Amino acid sequence: MPSVRDALAAAAARIGGDTPRLDAEVLLAHMIGCTRGELLLNPDRNIDQQAYEMLVKRRANGEPVAHITGQREFWSLDLLVTPDVLIPRPDSETLIEVALKRCRTPPRRILDLGTGSGALLLAALSEWPDATGLGIDASAAALAVAQANAARTGLSERAEFRAGNWGEGVTDQFDLILCNPPYIAVDEPLSAEVKAHEPASALFAGADGLDDYRRILPQLPGLLADAGLAVLEIGHLQGRALLDMAAGLGLQATLHQDLGGRDRCIAINAWRRSAAFTSCQ
User: Fold this and answer.
1) What is the distance of C-alpha 68 from the center of its chain?
2) Which domains does the chain have, with CATH numbers?
3) What span, in angstroms and rounded, lies between the C-alpha atoms of 129 and 92?
4) Measured between alpha carbons, how far is 79 from 127 in angstroms, rounded to an integer?
5) Mutual orientation of helices 119-127 and 93-102 as an angle, nearest 10°?
6) What phi and psi values does residue 41 have, to the nearest 5 degrees?
7) Residues in contact with 47: Cβ distance below 8 Å, sequence separation at least 6, in sequence order
8) What tens digit of pLDDT does each residue of 205-218 get?
9) Which residues pair with 161 in a beta bridge?
10) Could you tell me which residues are beta bridge partners of residue 277?
């Protein structure tokens, strides 16, 4: 029976890539049914080597860890993940950080366009306990994942999910709008793992990666409440193009970076904001 240390070393060597040891630890902790921290603090465990090797083989063949374990942490929430949704990534937490900094008064109504797994909406609702939210997605399979995550996180009573095409047909107005749309150009280089395992509809957006922003930005005037704020994720080379697009529509936008210093999102203020009432700015 190999030790945990030996099993992890062998698995990491087989997995390769950028984070082989981390991947090996996450997979073994998942198989055993403990946290990664518990695994490392208490390594004296019996291992079903055959079962572990099956998980390692899947990862070595390029399957994402989140698809193997069926879950991913986002903003300290343990979320279900399937191939029907984009895997939530730490970079997207920048949108929540920006919203927390810019909203002086807690938003009461939150909209998540292209909600996918529900990660952004549920993270926002976890921060603002008096808020309610609506998540929109064109994929019925994605909406099922989002609804399951709302139940998993205890937020079902405050989160509603609805099929739709971005903001079309939405008549309510919202204090905070979050959105992580597709923003990859069709001919842009992309890792084989992402191409093979994540939904193309959540990745690609035309020749320049901006097609969905051209649909979303003109809808914001009708969706934002007075003093409202919209925060949209962008590709790290798209900042200038998005600022120009927003300005062309008469929108006030600012650019924000992630922890790596890369452009990650734009924040757009409602232009009906009055001097007497500034909620999110």
Assistant:
1) 18
2) 4-61 (1.10.8), 72-269 (3.40.50.150)
3) 21
4) 16
5) 40
6) -80, -30
7) 1, 2, 4, 7, 28, 32
8) 999 999 999 999 99
9) 135
10) 274
The C-alpha atoms of residue 68 and residue 14 are separated, in whole angstroms, by 16
Q: Given phi > 0 = left and psi -120 to 50 = alpha, else beta, which region is 123? A: alpha
Tokens 């062309």 belong to residue: 248
SS (H, E, C) 76-129: CEEEECCCCCCCCCHHHHHHHHHHHHHECCCCCEEEEECCCCCHHHHHHHHHCC
DSSP 174: E
pTM of the model: 0.91
Length of the chain: 281
Copy the structure tokens of residue 248: 């062309």
Q: What's phi and psi for 133, nearest 5 deg? A: -145, 160
User: 51 — phi, psi (to 5°)?
Assistant: -65, -40
Residue 217 CA to residue 255 CA, distance in Å, equals 15
State the virtual CA torsion across 33, 35, 40, 42 in degrees, nearest 10: -60
* d(C-alpha 266, C-alpha 276), whole Å: 24
Which tokens sit at 220? Answer: 């914001």
Residues near 201 by beta carbon (within 8 Å), at least 6 away in sequence = 138, 139, 182
C-alpha angle with apex 108: 221 to 152, nearest 5 degrees? Answer: 110
Strand partners, 160: 134
What are 240-280's pLDDT values in tens digits? Answer: 999 999 999 999 999 999 999 999 999 998 764 433 334 45
Could you report the per-residue pLDDT of 153-168, keeping only the tens digit for each? Answer: 999 999 999 999 999 9
